[in-house]
Amino acid sequence: MLAGVWLAYFCFGSVSAAIAPLVSQVTHELDLTHTQMGSILGAWQLVYIGAAIPAGGLLDRIGPRRAIALGTLVVAASGIMRGFATDYWTMLIAVATFGIGGPLISVGAPSVIARWFVGRERGLAMGLYNVGQALGMIGALSLTSSVGLTLANGNWRAVLIGYGVFALIAALIWYAISSHADSRAMEMRNAAEPRRSQGGVVLELLRAPALRIVLLLAVGTFFFGHGLSNWLPEILRSDGMDPATAGLWASIPVVIGIFGALIFPRLAIPRRRMAILTFLFVLQMMAPLFLEWGAATPWVQATGLVMQGLARGTLSIVVMLMLMELKEVTPARMGAAGGMYFTAGEIGGVLGPLSIGTLYDLTGGFAASLYFLAALCAWQVAMLSRLKKALK
After folding, report:
1. CATH number, domain at 372?
2. Angle formed at CA 2 by CA 187 and CA 229, multiple of 5 degrees
3. Distance separating alpha carbons of residues 202 and 220, to the nearest angstrom
4. Distance between CA atoms of 19 and 39, rounded to whole angstroms?
5. The pTM is what?
6. Range of the domain at 132
7. Domain count, the chain
8. Average pLDDT, stretch 28-40?
9. Which of 38, 72, 200, 336 is deepest in the core (most CB within 10 A)?
């Protein structure tokens, strides 16, 4: 089951990141402004905001097995549709479609982990399936320009269609893996449990102060993560790198994030969790500053990319663990809580790429965006003290 979730998240990562290394080609051929490109990069997160909570309700009705399969199929359709886009609107719709399938995977994965793993193994399992997403992003960021375009004779459309076809195959593999007897039996037991209305559960959860703070942390974490990762190849190119080199350097945080995802979640037991979150937010705060200050010094930029990778590869996992272990979030409420988490997070996911693109058009560079991201992290550190009080 963990291997199947891993594969679904691999496709999630690869399809979501595939367009970032192709920003220049897509922007040029479709005659887009940076603001339009920013809205395209954030389009699926916008749809995700409205789809995540309903996805949690659908998951409770049909089970994670069917939900993750359906989500991966929609992700595949999004990848294929991008290859046929002809202008701003068709590309916007193609990317936005990802926001319908994405939450079914995002909400379904923690649900599977919560049912199959307990204790420290739960954190490790979450780290492992996030590694799948990270490796998908690594492949997309580092190989799309250097290998994908070469094999496709420079045809970016064929590259994007290829990512979609791979996701289609992955959906079939997941459905086969998750169809074994133990998975079906667990799904039947959960289906037999009494259900409450999704709206009532959401309202009850929102009354918990700690949960509201966790949702605010999710907004900031996704804002930073989606904003910087989508624009990172272009930020590096603006400092003088060629597209292939920028793609390889943009994969550094994702590679480093793998190690963070395997180490920190397992260590983030309740008594250490606040200290680990503080350390990670401070680390993430320094990353954009190093990118800006090191524009002419490669080792300084590399240090910033390592910092970003250690923080981004772990923060969302540890914050989700915090959510899962709140006393208000029982197993029967996990679907609703997961939907709320990803809805809140993707509000930041939409604003991140769009804000960076808009600030670029307003200022003619990325410096203002990088300083804003650092200030956002400082605010999140301050929010942790409020969360600590709310948990008492």
Report:
1. 1.20.1250.20
2. 120
3. 21
4. 13
5. 0.74
6. 2-188+197-390
7. 1
8. 83
9. 72
